């Protein structure tokens, strides 16, 4: 399975150990300061995006020497560096895209990056935002199977459309049957699987799933 790992420049303390995700089938892409995180773990950086205003002049020169493909954007633009890199990644012939370094620090960037998950629906690609505490994914209506993960036992569902209709949760501690929730509802926060495998389904709307550690 081909994958792209995008590494943005969020706070280092929120970042997982990137080495844990390394494989021969993954392409590492740095977004601005994220290039330093990739290089710092000795991973094979293939592409870089950004205005690079958060790295030193020396690092910028070294980056240009290191890569054949580097996309430098002006500081004043209509899209963030992360959005530009993500749009490129979703257009590639890959099955899955990871986004690291996208949470923590400035709340505007965190919320903006979470909203970028919508783009995966348009491109029909599996996209995850991953940090030390959470895995965040987005879903359109359908039925989905979910496996128990002791490391991230808390599972929350949040509507990010005005309404999500027909939510059904099976094999959860707090099950639901054909429930409707509106934007701003906290009904489905902090649930847990009680079996090794569970399912969730819904009929209308867009749903965010967050799997979290203690």
TrEMBL record:
Pfam families, per the entry: TPK_B1_binding (PF04265), TPK_catalytic (PF04263)
GO molecular function: ATP binding; kinase activity; thiamine binding; thiamine diphosphokinase activity
Entry EC number(s): 2.7.6.2
Broad class of enzyme this protein falls into: transferase
Transmembrane is among the record's keywords: no
Cross-referenced CDD domains: TPK
SMART domains for the chain: TPK_B1_binding (SM00983)
Boundaries of every Thiamin pyrophosphokinase thiamin-binding domain copy: 142-208
Source organism, top-level taxon: Bacteria
SUPFAM superfamilies for the chain: Thiamin pyrophosphokinase, catalytic domain, Thiamin pyrophosphokinase, substrate-binding domain
Keywords assigned: ATP-binding, Kinase, Nucleotide-binding, Transferase
Nucleotide-binding is among the record's keywords: yes
InterPro entries associated with the record: Thi_PPkinase, Thiamin_PyroPKinase_B1-bd, TPK, TPK_B1-bd_sf, TPK_catalytic, TPK_catalytic_sf
A biological-process GO annotation: thiamine metabolic process
Protein name: Thiamine diphosphokinase
Organism of derivation: Bacillus weihaiensis
């Amino acid at each position: 399975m081909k994958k792209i790992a995008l590494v943005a420049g969020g706070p280092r303390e929120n970042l997982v150990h990137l080495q844990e995700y390394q494989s021969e089938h993954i392409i590492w892409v740095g977004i601005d300061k994220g290039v330093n995180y990739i290089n710092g773990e000795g991973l094979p950086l293939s592409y870089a995006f950004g205005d690079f205003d958060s790295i030193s002049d020396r690092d910028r020169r070294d980056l240009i020497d290191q890569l054949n493909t580097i996309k430098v954007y002006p500081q004043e633009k209509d899209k963030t560096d992360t959005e530009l890199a993500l749009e490129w990644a979703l257009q590639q012939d890959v099955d899955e895209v990871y986004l690291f370094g996208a949470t923590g620090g400035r709340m505007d960037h965190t919320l903006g990056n979470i909203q970028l998950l919508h783009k995966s629906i348009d491109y029909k690609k599996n996209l995850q935002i991953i940090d030390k505490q959470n895995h965040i994914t987005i879903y359109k209506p359908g039925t989905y199977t979910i496996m128990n993960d002791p490391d991230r036992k808390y599972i929350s569902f949040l509507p990010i459309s005005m309404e999500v209709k027909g939510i059904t949760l099976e094999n959860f501690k707090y099950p639901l049957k054909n429930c409707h929730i509106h934007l701003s509802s906290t009904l489905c926060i902090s649930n847990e699987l009680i079996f090794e495998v569970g399912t969730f389904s819904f009929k209308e709307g867009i749903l965010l799933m967050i799997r979290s550690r203690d």
